[in-house]
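## tool: complex_structure
## caller: assistant
## args:
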Amino acid sequence: NFMLTQPHSVSESPGKTVTISCTRSSGSIARNYVQWYQQRPGSAPTIVIYEDNERPSGVPDRFSGSIDKSANSASLTISGLKTEDEADYYCQSYDTSNFYVFGTGTKVTVL
Amino acid sequence: QVQLVQSGAEVKKPGASVKVSCKAAGNSLSSSYIHWVRQAPGQGLEWMGIINPSGDFTGYAQSFQGRVTMTRDTSTSTVSMKLSSLSSDDTAIYYCAKEGQNHFDSWGQGTLVTVSS
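## result:
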């Protein structure tokens, strides 16, 4: 079994950049794709990054994803922060024994 | 994008079962893997399980093994999730989600299940 651990919260001013980490507890982060979901209050999650760094159509290029094998973690970076980016963000990956696993979630606050 | 429509909110007593349904508006779900994810109040997302397009394969998270059953009716393009032996810990919003290319590309609106005596 593995877990995906995220910081509880991050905050930054409009126009700045935030990076959210997602650290895998065991097994290589590169073994399976990492996805990122945005969840605004009262709404269902929506995909913002899939397959580590792919952006679905309609998602601004201010959102980007990456993998750091040395840290065994994935990251979501939001540049040019906007008030509309204020939401909870969850990473998600997969394991043949665990099936699908979500990260602990990060609340992004735009000051 | 496929719009998934879920059944309405439920209130159940401890020990009871609940069945939540998920249907595609417009397009059929017949070729899609469907997942169920839940979210307790103020908590994170928890993956519950998956059902394949034909309904003959299901996979459940270990924490729900023996209590959850996922089924699908291909004639009505409806997928259902039944959770039994409910406790207050099962109070949550339950989402169905369609699997796209290695991600959940469409989500239902969520169904609030409240377990209370």
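## assistant note: Chain A has no helices and ten strands. The first strand of chain A starts at residue 4 and ends at 5. Handing back to user.
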